[in-house]
Amino acid sequence: MATQRGRSVNGIVLLDKPSGMSSNAALQIVKRLYRARKAGHTGSLDPLASGMLPLCLGEATKFAGVLLNADKAYRFTSRLGETTTTGDAEGEVVTRRPVGGLTQAAVAAVLARFTGVIQQIPPMYSALKHQGRPLYELARQGLEVERKPRSVIIHDLRLLSLTPDTLECEVRCTKGTYIRTLAADLGEALDCGAHIVALRRTAVEPFDAERLITLDAIKQLAEQGEAALDAILLAVDSALVDCPKVSLPDEAAYYLGRGQSVWLPHAPCQGAVRLYHGERFLGVGEVREDGRIAPQRLVQTAT
To answer: Measured between alpha carbons, how far is 84 from 98 in angstroms, rounded to an integer?
Structure first.
């Protein structure tokens, strides 16, 4: 009988992805170092970008969508006066315009116009698909297709520094926000054009930068053995802290673990909840109108 390759390891690695590496390449390196049977990331970072890339191992992959849909925070630097084909430094310069004497007050006024709900047209150099093909493939062939505007929410957009030809900002936004597009749109609003020269993701809710670990540090831990690697893993349920917690008694936990709905008096709310039996995480369930809790995504480590 064939056996699955790799070991059963469950948890989340908050990787500090280096610039110049694709998200999938970083994922494959970490998966190999852990000898993990199953692994996935939670939404790609551009190769140009560095910063937080949560990697889900084993049972944590069942909840990768939570992090994919979470709010994100970024720090980016734009080169003013130039636009490029890709919206970043990897593209060819398309236009050059004088920047003029921008003041911090003038820039802050423009930034204020980009907070709240805004419309973005996805860039051609993106992984968004058109008739089954990523847009970046079409863009590399010199093709351009119509893209519909999308609504995103910019919770906060702050100016960090301003020089005669650069603009550094910090932004907190909803999923699906294209930071290259935001930088380009800001450049147009400033009447000089702009493209990104540096981009770093600083947070993926509910995580902040405190637990970030570099690829080099993970490689060093791998030399010490699997126990050292496993010690940096965040718990499978660490991505779900915003979801209400429900503790189940013995009998309810038993039947829920077998895929059955269970009734719990005084359920805290309707909707998604984290389920526990004692301190043991069982998975995510849904509280229905009649007070029953239906299993949604259960973890095998709970059985």
So the answer is: 15
Q: Name the residues annotated as catalytic.
A: 46
Q: What share of the chain has pLDDT > 90, as a percent? A: 70
The helix/strand/coil state of 273 is strand
For residues 234 and 48, the answer to whether their CB atoms sit within 8 Å is: no
Give residue-wise pLDDT tens across range 231-276.
999 999 999 998 899 999 999 999 998 889 998 877 767 788 999 9
Name the CATH superfamily for 243-302. PUA domain (2.30.130.10)
Cis ω before 98 (30° cut-off from 0): no
> Per-residue confidence at 2, pLDDT binned at 50, 70, 90?
very low
Around Cβ 4, how many Cβ atoms within 10 Å? 8
Question: What is the DSSP secondary structure assignment for residue 125, as one 8-state letter?
Answer: S
- CB of 213 closer than 8 Å to CB of 13: yes
CATH of domain 72-204: 3.30.2350.10
- Determine the topology of domain 11-69+207-237 in CATH: Pseudouridine synthase (3.30.2350)
Residue with tokens 């805004």: 118
* 66-113 tens-digit pLDDT: 999 999 999 999 999 999 988 899 889 999 999 988 999 999 999 999
Place of tokens 């906060």: 156
The 3-state DSSP class for residue 241 equals coil
Question: Cβ atoms within 10 A of the Cβ of 235, count?
Answer: 12
